[in-house]
From TrEMBL:
CDD domains: M13. Keywords: Hydrolase, Metal-binding, Metalloprotease, Protease, Signal, Zinc. The keyword Nucleus does not apply. Belongs to the peptidase M13 family. Its cofactor is Zn(2+). The lineage of its organism: Eukaryota, Metazoa, Ecdysozoa, Arthropoda, Hexapoda. This is Membrane metallo-endopeptidase-like 1. Residues 1-25 form the signal peptide.
Amino acid sequence: MFSISTRSRLSLSFLICVFLSVSEARSVSNDSQDQSDREKKITDDTAEYLRSYGAKMKSYMNFSVEPCDDFYEYACGNWKQPRKSKQKESNLLSIDYSLAVITEQLMTRTQLAEALNVSDELLVTQRFYNACLTAVVSPLPAADPAYLSLIRSVGGFPAVDGAAWNASKFSWFNMSAHLTNYGVKGLINDDILAKYPFDPNFKMPDLGYDHPVHTDNIANSSSRAYKLNEDRMRGYLQAFNLTEEKISAVVAGVFDFWREALSIEDKFEGNEDMCIMLTDMHEVPVFSQWRSYFEIAWNGLHFNEEEYYYCPYYYAELDKVCAKHQEAVANYLAMLLLYRMDSSLKDEKYHKEHCLMLVQSTMDHLINKLYMAEYFSEETHSEISGLVKELRKTLRQELENAEWLDTETRREALLKEANITAQIGSYKDEQLTDTLIRQIRNLSVVKDSFAQTMINLRKFGVSLGRYNGLHYKEIPADSKPLELLVGMQPNAFYFNMDNSIYIMAGLLHPPAYHRSWPDSLKFGTLGYLVGHELTHGFDTVGSTYDGAGEERNWWSKKSDAVFQERAQCYVDHFSNYLIPEINHKIKGNETKDENIADAGGLREALAAYRSHMKQLQKKGENNETLTPQNEQMPGLDLSPEQLFFLGFAQLWCANYEQEDYWEELKNEHTIEKYRVLGAVSNNEVFAEAYNCPLGSAMHPKFEKCRLW
């Protein structure tokens, strides 16, 4: 029998230990090398990404223009984005295309859907998407029997039906009410109020198809507004094989109706307050047909409707015009329904993107659930939360340092700031979200009729958007608007009713944010957007709500007088901007709160960035590993603060057609170019960063507007 002595056993143990130590050392060495290689790859990948993104930013710029002469043109003069549909294209809105790519990926995540218990809903979504991919979406098959059947069921199409159309049974108001069920804002322009009970809110109808029509832009048949709308109508009417004579007569009839309808609006220039004054002056009663709208669009549900009806004077006058142009009105509304179903693609190569956008916008609660589970990390949440805290510190400092606030008003303002709640990613209401996702099972994808499928989709989308209002008796009074549940959108909100700010997860993509960017760029983009929303809590509307979200006057007369004077500065400043493409000026009064938020957000973001860098530098003095990262972007010969302002401006790079200017003339947001010019020309630090001489366009001699 072979035996091992004690000494031998000890020697063997020693050799084993030595062997293990060497092996472990090699393993540790290999792990260390692998870790080092991984870190180097990450560093190299980050450096390459930054070089690539810096080159992209540079490609947008027009170096033939001095930044002090026209900062928008300098920052965005060479930004180009092919127009894919009837909507305008802009750099910030391009995030939608990034999200569309992610949507396509998420639709393949069957295991994730199973884990989240949404497999059935994902299956319906996949069926719709596949149906869309194989359908003819451009040009729209306008004469499809499904579309014609729907039109006939809601009011008729006299251009197509001829003598079979019964004028005596036609109601322009009822047809408009039916169309709202499919998202068509015809002669009833409704949306949903953002507070309980989530009932409808009505605004002035916008007339036209591809180009909004106004009295002065359709005065002659050679205008762009006239030609684009004429071409759209001709395209639809030709699908029904009407004679050229008949088509011309129908088109002319619609234009005649538009001109008379526009003449009503011209009396009060679209100003709702003026319209109410005319209502009172002429003692016009509430328009009698509104109850029909609730019967048709809200399943007979009645709110306290009279509070929300749009200007009775307008509808009383519109009723007279519609009675005079019955056939034209019916034809207009019928084609408006077709327009709602139309992809309006500029090229067939955008077909897939169109289908993805339909999925993303209509099955948004489902796709969002998958997106948040797969893409939104705690690490991201933590960084954005830190940025929000930095912005809130600077807002608080601005409130503390505003010498024009008296003691009591300042106390209320600081109390309001202290009570702001921040939601990063989205608002969470799992029970309501799951209920909304379950609704997808009700969407019918018709195998042999994509037209009927599209009709079903549009109706489904509207009913989903009205869900809270339709079920207001069953939901808590503190329920949030449905938009706040969808993190997968490139947006941020300030919500007056609960004094909260929402930074949605879908916003966290270039050109708004990327983890690898220098902090100077992050603060100039996402930091500014956060500051913009925080400032809304203290604009002319936000300032009427207190820290608990209650509408209350917490201002002293003295402080309020200064506040109104400072706000008026923005009204006057922006009202001076002429839009040469349409020969109209920016409506400073309608856009003042967005302009105030832009200016405040930009100031707060820069102050927060400076404070952040000071903190990093202070830490760096005590710990060399905590020094600030390189604050410049490779390939751009710009200082960190110049990069800050460039990032802000490039959010708003956009391609505008003439119709976009008309479309946004009524918007509460200023047209992109002028919101950039207005914000930087009222910011003294911008002038310092770019060395703009006093008297230059971006550093004018007059006193700069400043609220906060």
